[in-house]
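Re: Re: ligand-bound prediction request (bumping)

Still looking for help on this. To restate: I need the protein modeled with calcium ion bound, output as structure tokens. Inputs repeated here so nobody has to scroll up.
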Amino acid sequence: MKKILIVEDELSIAQLERDYLQVSGYEVEVATEGDKGLQLVMHESYDLVILDLMLPGVDGYEICRRLRSVSEVPVIVVSAKKEDSDKIRVFGLGADDFMTKPFSPSELVARVNAHMSRYDRLVNAAKDRRNEDILEIRDLSFDRAARRVMLYGKEITLTQKEYDLLLFLAEHPNTVFTKEDLFRNIWGFEVVGDTATVTVHVKKIREKIEIDPTKPKYIETIWGVGYRFHR
Ligand code: CA
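Reply:
Sorry for the wait, this slipped through. Here it is.
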């Protein structure tokens, strides 16, 4: 269940907001003063925060500013302040929305729903991007965005070409490549060198990722042909 924090010192308003949000299927927590609100946003995790500005103790501006230093969670400010300068200030601090009191609770719920689904879409898009970057094969894990390889969760150090070669093979598991194929793919046509370069690099990679490099379990030698990455 999605969890919302309401920071609001007027109890009747806090209760009204809470009731409407609970009926709409949200779990709701209320803080009635600024210090408590700040402590909660910094140490607990919420899916959305509804924030009053004028509060006893730390004010809503400061809570918003501090929250933004640690989280991108949606923030809706609900305040009696109606000056443009106040709105500009809270948007500058990273708030996503502003409602002026008195407000319609149904409209608040509608805005909460909208921000919630927008935030979900953002989070999921980030997750998808992350999944595309990660390639896991047996005990090896590639982070393609960072050009890192982990073996049993521990980073191994490869030269650029070793990395390119290993990743290329891992991206095409169970496919046999000749040394010529590999040389052309990793080093390109323009570069001077020969297939012995491939042999040397495979040897170096094996020393770094194989328990016994003479009995390789990842890059297999196909005698008379070339190499194959064993999935
Ligand atoms: Ca207030």
